[in-house]
Amino acid sequence: MKRPGNVITTYLGAFTLLLCLYSIRGDYCEVNHCFNGATCVTGLGDDPFICICADGFGGDTCNLTEIGPCSPNPCRNDGSCEVIAPTRRGDVFNEYVCKCQPGFEGVHCQINVNDCANQPCKNGGTCRDLDGDYACQCLSPYVGKQCQLRCISLLGMEGGAIVESQISASSVHYGILGLQRWGPELARLNNQGIVNAWTSASHDRNPWIEINMQKKMRLTGIITQGASRMGTAEYIKAFKVASSFDGNSYVTYKGDNQRRDKVFVGNTDNDSTKTNLFDPPIVAQYIRIIPVVCRRACTLRMELVGCELNVYSNTAGCSEPLGMKSRLVSDGQLSASSTFRTWGIDTFTWHPQFARLDKAGKTNAWSPAHNNRSEWIQVDLEKTKRLTGIITQGAKDFGVVQFVSVFKVAYSNDGELWSTVKDENTDNDKLFQGNIDNNTHKKNLFEPPFYARYIRVIPWEWHERITLRMELLGCDD
Ligand SMILES: *[C@@H]1O[C@H](CO)[C@@H](O)[C@H](O)[C@H]1NC(C)=O
Ligand SMILES: *[C@@H]1O[C@H](CO)[C@@H](O)[C@H](O)[C@H]1NC(C)=O
Ligand SMILES: *[C@@H]1O[C@H](CO)[C@@H](O)[C@H](O)[C@H]1NC(C)=O
Ligand SMILES: *[C@@H]1O[C@H](CO)[C@@H](O)[C@H](O)[C@H]1NC(C)=O
């Protein structure tokens, strides 16, 4: 992967705002007095109208061409232009130099570097090129930034690490006048004996067996096995899997097909084992096996395959940018309580989709319609990730420095029920110290880190207007 130098410069568009003083009255913008694609605005203070010029134009009515090597900006992809002392390189006369954002190169930053060129994803993972970064989609059971780790531990049904109290079921079959209890705690792979598996009660129309792993784990597969009762094979021929973070709300596993529940093919006899992989893996604390088709009775012995979520030993190992800047987080994943428009002009809308660290341009951050503590910006990471920190940054609106100086952070797994990050010592909502100017990156760590799919930043104090660019830090685990 090619990484450009670590100088990050933000190009705040050379923007000319000129006030015109004309002694005429009426709706002055009805006839557009502004040239070259400029926007005409009335109703601002005492001035009858003003022209907001497009890049590269100036003068009261934007009829003058601003001339200079950096105006209009010749650099593409948010690159910043710097005027330099004229130099001669071969036959080419240089007056400016473009400083490119990470992921772009070329004289005018016109080349999007292919961060996948060196095939960073191992073990069959698929690479996606981002702006200055890449993302690997791993094949199960591989995990990690580069799919370099194997997530294949046996979680302890057979070995006993999962204890009886962690296993429950919708019902239990009692055999031979109620003397044999085919309880869920027996559902262990290769369990021996006459009564050696879980069987649901024959009247149970919606049977399930559940394992509470006591903390969130990553599951990459399941091994199932039937059993024989009184000389006859009993097993689950087909089943579904559901999972939950809290033991209350469950989602049925759908695999890559988002429309239909995935039905796994189970066993065909009383003893052989069948392994199914979860691709993509399941991250959950509770896992339920839901028999769909059973032979004679729903009888099961099983093992779970997976690994601890926290394969990184410390926070430092889990502090990758989660994709605000690189655009791994797409525009559709960003939303906000409201958006501000400078002078009510659509072209100058401060969308939540602009809240990307180091974004350049005239409107290059999120700003809400009102400046009070009810406003928020939300990131939907689309799956649960481990969050370890946040970087925030302010911006300028037509030369006015604006930023969020104090903020809160809330998170959620369903987008409905929210928890606010608390201060470890006081147990009050944690107030994060934010920015002090229009451009510096301010980093805050989440201590302890948390797991969430949805994250909200709630501005608490600000300078001029609530204005925010940001990046989230964490990892897939
Ligand atoms: C630009 O417009 C102003 C009046 O609005 C006029 O005086 C001036 O001559 C114009 N300049 C050019 C280059 O057209
Ligand atoms: C159960 O499986 C074992 C080993 O495959 C086989 O020998 C036995 O016949 C089977 N019993 C029944 C009842 O199917
Ligand atoms: C924030 O402003 C909006 C619009 O003026 C208002 O509806 C809302 O109640 C305000 N919230 C607070 C906490 O002041
Ligand atoms: C805004 O940030 C830029 C880049 O760091 C800096 O050069 C400039 O002085 C800042 N503007 C103000 C008004 O602080």
Automatic annotation (TrEMBL):
Q: Name one Pfam family in it.
A: F5_F8_type_C
Query: Domain of life of the organism in this record?
Result: Eukaryota
Every copy of the F5/8 type C domain together lies at 151-307, 318-475
Keywords of the record: Disulfide bond, EGF-like domain, Signal
Return one GO MF term. calcium ion binding
Q: Which cysteines are joined by disulfide bonds?
A: 34-51, 53-62, 100-109, 138-147
Q: Which GO terms describe its cellular component?
A: plasma membrane
The portions of this protein that span the membrane are none
Does Disulfide bond show up as a keyword for this record?
yes
Q: Which InterPro entries match?
A: EGF, EGF-like_Ca-bd_dom, EGF-type_Asp/Asn_hydroxyl_site, EGF_Ca-bd_CS, FA58C, Galactose-bd-like_sf, Neuropilin_MCO_CoagFactor
Q: Does the keyword Signal apply?
A: yes
Boundaries of each EGF-like domain copy?
A: 25-63, 66-110, 112-148
Signal peptide start-end: 1-26
Which protein are we looking at? Milk fat globule-EGF factor 8 protein a
Q: What is the scientific name of the source organism? A: Amphiprion ocellaris
